[in-house]
Design a protein that fits this description.
490 residues, alpha/beta, FAD/NAD(P)-binding domain, 3 domains, 7-stranded mixed beta sheet, 5-stranded parallel beta sheet, 17 helices, 19 strands, 35% helix, Phytoene desaturase, Carotenoid/retinoid_OxRdtase, oxidoreductase, FAD/NAD-bd_sf
């Protein structure tokens, strides 16, 4: 039995704690905040309940496997329901598309809006993406990856490597394969699922829309925070100890490997193994600096952090006609958005894509009212000072005007609103600059060669969005499964 300290109680940390405890290890989770969840937070006020982080679950079987491996099945403890349509899209010319939950219904929906030729082109891209998923879904995303050599060895042939084509971008794929600019915009949208720029992210990421269409989009009744609470409960049932308001100031090690962690108040927590669910940049620069991690720091300097997000939580009176669980309202100039976020002079996006999550769930709002989560992509805190007086409120007013211009005017329905800026994400979750996904996937190395799950010091392991295989609810749970496999049973 090993003594394990998990740094951070985000979904990756909780999943690691549950798996390692189920394997017989003695696990303690040290979390700087007062509760578990990390970016998967919640706000409750006046009968309204908001998820403040992810609002869509893809690949639910990843969590079914996690719960099956650690105790009672997932569907015994939470109600996972399909989102249909997965998303309602509004394009700059006013065209609207409902993307169905069922994969076999997608071609007809696309043909009805964009025409048969466009639908065939999209499906051809998805057929190729299915092949890519076969190449990376299990061989790469669900196994440890130690570098380029591992990637090459897991490709059965040169033809497989050419199919992955890490030098080709998602944007170039759309230009080559999709004649309709609206479909190209739809494809570009999936780069933001990893907080990235479609002009820089590898075309391999076409697997993201394939996964969403093949496996569907899902919601947990009561909000995705319910999934997080169920996982924390599973940890406690397995004997995991939690230390909240316990900020880790450093990781201790000697010639044999890690020996524990030090809390900010000086208290040591001895450990044989340490699992880090914090941003890799914070881990290697602040918690474990020194010669042993210098190579890891150099690698991180070549990687761009992911974008962040500006969020409005809107308590709305009344109901919206033709409600949709998810809406995406595109701007006229999508490239200007990525220039504002990733360019040399970052700024709040003047005319952003607006994402709205409005669950049709009676448990999250008073009868007859709605709880809206509104997100726009944003540059990190630091390059932009999101604490500047008046900036957040002025920008929120701007986003509400943009919503009205795009057909969703709710300004006279707002009972109250709460705002979350990149500065808030940094303060509350410890993510550098408030980066939602840790590292972006801008470039082949960032997309395919994130920091490995086995750290450069013996006994150190990494999970979460900045480690392999990446950010998002399914991937951080995959990273936890990888770590559990590397550690093994007690």
């Amino acid at each position: 039995m090993a003594r394990v300290v998990v740094i951070g109680a985000g979904m990756g940390g909780l999943a690691s704690a549950a798996r390692l405890a189920a394997l017989g290890h003695r696990v303690t989770v040290a979390e700087q905040a007062g509760t578990h969840g990390g970016k998967l937070g919640t706000l409750r006020r006046d009968g309204f309940t908001f998820d403040t982080g992810p609002s869509l679950l893809t690949l639910p079987d990843v969590y079914r496997d996690l719960f099956a491996a650690t105790g009672a099945p997932l569907d015994d403890v939470v109600d996972v329901v399909p989102v249909d349509p997965v998303c309602h899209y509004r394009f700059p010319d006013g065209t609207e598309l409902d993307l169905p939950h069922a994969a076999d219904e997608v071609p007809a929906a696309l043909a009805e809006v964009f025409g048969e030729r466009a639908a065939r082109q999209w499906q051809a891209v998805m057929v190729d993406a299915a092949h890519l998923w076969d190449l990376v879904g299990e061989p790469v995303l669900q196994r440890p990856l130690g570098g380029v050599g591992d990637l090459v060895r897991r490709s059965a042939s040169v033809r497989d490597l050419l199919a992955i084509a890490p030098w080709r971008t998602l944007r170039s794929l759309g230009r080559r394969r999709l004649a309709d600019p609206r479909l190209r915009m739809l494809l570009d949208r999936y780069a933001t699922y990893s907080g990235s720029d479609p002009r820089r992210i590898p075309a391999l990421m076409s697997v993201v829309p394939f996964v969403e269409q093949r496996f569907g989009g899902w919601y947990v009744r009561g909000g995705l925070r319910v999934l997080c609470d169920a996982l924390a409960d599973r940890c406690r049932a397995l004997g995991v100890g939690f230390r909240f308001h316990a900020r880790v100031a450093g990781i201790d090690s000697d010639a044999s490997g890690v020996t524990g962690v030090r809390l900010a108040d000086g208290e040591p927590l001895p450990a044989d193994l340490v699992v880090s669910d914090v941003d890799a940049e914070h881990l290697y620069h602040d918690l474990l600096p020194g010669r042993a991690t210098s190579r890891a720091r150099r690698a991180l300097r070549r990687v761009r952090p992911s974008l962040s997000g500006f969020v409005m939580l809107l308590a709305l009176r009344g109901r919206t006609p033709a409600p949709r669980h998810h809406r995406v309202l595109f701007p006229a100039d999508y490239d200007a958005e990525f220039d504002a976020v990733f360019g040399r002079a970052p700024q709040p996006v003047p005319d952003p894509t607006v994402y709205v999550c409005a669950p049709d769930d009676p448990t999250v709002a008073p009868d007859g009212d709605e709880a809206w989560f509104v997100l726009v992509n944003a540059p990190r805190h630091g390059p932009v000072d999101w604490t500047a007086p008046g900036l957040a409120d002025d920008y929120a007013d701007r986003v509400l005007r943009i919503l009205a211009d795009r057909g969703l005017d709710v300004r006279d329905r707002v009972r109250w609103r709460e705002l979350r800026t990149p500065a808030d994400w940094e303060r509350d979750t410890g993510s550098v600059g408030g980066s939602i996904y840790g590292s972006s996937s801008n470039g082949p190395r960032a997309a395919l060669l994130r920091p490995g799950n086995a750290g450069p010091v013996r006994g150190l392991y990494l999970v979460g969005g900045s480690a392999h295989p990446g950010g998002g609810l399914p991937l951080v749970a995959m990273s936890a499964a990888i770590v559990a496999g590397l550690v093994g049973p007690a």
